[in-house]
Write a structure and sequence with these properties.
By secondary structure, the protein is an alpha/beta fold. It is about 35% helix and about 25% strand.
Length: about 260
């Protein structure tokens, strides 16, 4: 299957028996997941549960100690998988280059790979920025943007390759509530428009329940539950309920 043959659909992802340790500490303890093509799949859990490490395995940034990740049945660590499928990751920090304009950041991949002429790249950059609600900001620099705008620029940069799998690592972290809602709306809108499979790692309960087709709860490197938002809310598992109902505003420090 070539890239051209698979232009307008998302891809299925399967995680089988994934284990990963760092410095002798086991972070992922046998993860099994199946993510359907085109769905918004949220991986939710507390800090340190292994969410971001799992996400990095899905795009091949980490190599498992045991197990594997498959995209359409092909191992991510296998030869040529990155040539066969278009994968984009939106990093938690945004990872924008402050020395480049917004337009230069968004078009960087296309320019480095010289896959299209400059005029066409400029058109693609404007189109993707417009898609995330940032029309006309091409000549601004990242330090002139709000946190929410930077996140959307990072999403636009991922969109230039017309991704089939779009991975978001804590997309609402460090954002005010209004900006967080905007990012949630962008994730939903993009899923409808480009039909990519979206995997969202977050500890933001509002984001998770607002965008997910299905949610996986991960805790201490293990999957506790996979289900629809309603199924997760109704599940009596104490680990699940403790996480999704915690109200930190009511907690008082012990003096």
């Amino acid at each position: 299957m070539s890239t051209k043959e698979s232009t307008d659909r998302g891809v299925a992802v399967e995680v089988r028996g994934l284990r990963k340790s760092f410095n002798g500490q086991m972070v992922l303890k046998g993860i099994d997941l199946k993510i359907a093509a085109g769905e918004i799949f949220v991986i939710m859990g507390p800090s340190g549960a292994g969410k971001s490490v799992l996400l990095k395995h899905m795009i091949g940034l980490e190599t498992p100690d045991q197990g594997e990740v498959l995209i359409e049945g092909i191992p991510v660590q296998g030869a040529h998988v990155m040539d066969r499928f278009r994968l984009a990751m939106i990093f938690q920090s945004g990872a924008l280059l402050n020395s480049l304009t917004v337009g230069e950041n968004v078009g960087l991949y296309l320019r480095e790979h010289r896959s299209k002429p400059p005029r066409e790249i400029d058109l693609i950059v404007r189109e993707k920025l417009d898609l995330v609600g940032l029309k006309g900001v091409e000549d601004r620099y990242p330090n002139e943007l709000s946190g929410g705008m930077k996140k959307r620029v990072a999403i636009a940069r991922g969109l230039v390759i017309e991704p089939q799998l779009l991975l978001y690592d804590e997309p609402t972290s460090e954002l005010d509530p209004i900006s967080a809602v905007t990012i949630a709306e962008e994730i939903l809108n993009l899923n409808r428009r480009i039909h990519a499979t979206s995997v969202v790692v977050t500890h933001d309960r509002d984001l998770a329940f607002g965008v997910a087709d299905r949610i996986a709860i991960i805790d201490e490197g293990k999957i506790v539950l996979v289900g629809s938002p309603d199924e997760v809310k109704a599940n009596p598992n104490s680990v699940v309920q403790r996480f999704i109902t915690a109200d930190f505003r009511k907690e008082k420090p012990t003096l």
